[in-house]
Amino acid sequence: MIFDTLRNAWSVKSIRQKIIFTLLMLLVFRIGAHIPVPFVNHENLARIFEGNAMLDLMNIMGGNALSKFSVFALSIIPYVTASIIMNLLTVVVPYLGRLAKEGNDGRRKITQYTRYGTVILGFVQGLAFPAGFVSDAIDFGTFPPILGTLLMALILTAGTAFLMWLGEQITEKGIGNGISLIIFAGIVASLPGTAFDISQRVAEGTIPWYSAAGMVLILTALIAGIVFVQEGQRKIPVQYAKRVVGRKVYGGQSSHIPLKVNQAGVIPLIFGFAMITIPSMIGSWFGKGSSVSNFIETWMSMGDSITVFSIPFMIVLALMIVFFTYFYTGITFNPVDVADNLKKQGGFIPGIRPGRPTSDYLAKILSRVTLAGGVFLAIIALMPMIIQAVTGITKLGLGGTSLLIAVSVALDTMKQMESQLLQRSYGGFLK
Predict the structure, then answer these.
(1) 285-289 contacts, C-beta under 8 A, 24 or more apart
(2) Which alpha helices (DSSP H) does 240-290 contain, by range?
(3) Which residues pair with 250 in a beta bridge?
């Protein structure tokens, strides 16, 4: 059981120190999420957030830091974006591809480039928010607007850089992946507020109690589905031929290649939402109330409920997520390379010839598994609208994407804790 694992981990001094260090670093993150940036009118800021799905998602991932426009308003999103860009560049840029294959030294250089990219993206986003997205909520007073915008951008960039450092410290001295845990902490921090808001609306009679109960059941089933899919994999059996070297016999063992159902993780969701919000950004350039802005807001944005106008948006978003699932899976898993490595190591899939037939077989299986993963991620992305249609609860404040991130990070952290316990002969909860 999970509680047995936590209790056993707490009883080991070295692991207990890591857990305490991690919790202290997350406490620093939560304190910083309440330190406001100057020049912000919070009443106008609250109105900007109404009905903006992308800002709500970023706000949830940052633990409501964006809605408060604190020093951590950008959260760790610039780092995540920079990491994704670096992963893509390692495929198309030969120099970065060579660095990725050079072991620890190459990875350190790529990590350094990712840090530079984080600072650059953080500064760009730090300029874009006060100058564009939330410009109506900014009041510089007698302070020069240009200097005020630069000051806000510097503060937001410094907050992101500090969070990046905080995450690296957690990874090095604590438990789990620091960056993922910061996102996890932000999502979990928003849950009490969401629960209180829904309970208050039930008490006021705004929404019936059975709708709230239905929402809880749907979210519970969703969490169970996320765990099932995240842990699901297709095992491709592999047999290694026997080799005689001198007087010793090598090989002859059997193994398997695990093909995860959700090989791409949460990346397709991030890409899909980023691409689908581009029309909304373009519409904002024409001004609110213009014909272009009204068209985009009607047909190409996520509203509070499912209507005939929102169906095209849902279809396009689902197709984009499935596309990015195939795209990112193709980057992270290359059947040709896997087939070549198996051939060099004397391994083969029973009934499949080594070389090209093996790569074709792996590509065929991967395509089927990836389709299931892509459809699952599309359902996750559309879950807020589905919940709104079934229960009638609008402005949920919690989406399938944030749940997927939270559950995935929790599973990975528990696995890391379990691996350290297994070294000390403790039984874990993941059997």
Answers:
(1) none
(2) 267-276, 278-285
(3) 243
Determine contact, residues 9/415, Cβ cutoff 8 Å: no
Q: What is the DSSP track for 355-414?
A: THHHHHHHHHHHHHHHHHHHHHHHHHHHHHHHHHHHH-----S--HHHHHHHHHHHHHHH
**Inter-residue contact 360 to 371 (CB < 8 Å):** no
Which runs of E-coded beta strand occur in 171-325? 233-240, 243-245, 248-250, 254-260
Q: What pLDDT, on a 0 to 100 scale, did the predictor assign at position 26?
A: 92
Task: Kindly report the three-state secondary structure assignment for every residue of 286-298.
Answer: CCCCCHHHHHHHH
Q: What pLDDT band is residue 418 in, cutting at 50, 70 and 90?
A: confident
Q: Which two tokens stand for residue 109?
A: 């250089």
As a whole number of angstroms, the distance between CA 184 and CA 88 comes to 24
CA 117, distance to chain mean position in Å, is 18
* Average pLDDT of the chain, as a whole number: 80
Three-state DSSP class for residue 245: strand
- Parallel, antiparallel or unpaired: strands 233-240 and 254-260: antiparallel
Contacts 24+ apart (CB under 8 A), 108-117: 110/86, 113/86, 114/79, 114/82, 114/83, 114/86, 115/82, 115/164, 117/82, 117/85, 117/86
Give the strand pairing for 243-245 and 248-250. antiparallel
pLDDT tens digit sequence for 165-202: 999 999 999 888 888 888 888 888 878 877 887 888 88
The vertex-213 CA angle with 212 and 217, nearest 5°, equals 115
Instruction: Give the amino acid at 61.
Output: M
- Token pair for residue 47? 């109105």
Rounded distance between C-alpha atoms, residue 172 and residue 168, angstroms:
6
Assess contact for 163 and 79: CB atoms under 8 A: yes
- The percentage of the chain sitting over the pLDDT mark of 70, rounded to a whole number, equals 81
Cβ density class 255-287: b for 16+ within 10 Å, e for less: eebebbbbbbbbbbbbbbbeebbebbeebbeee
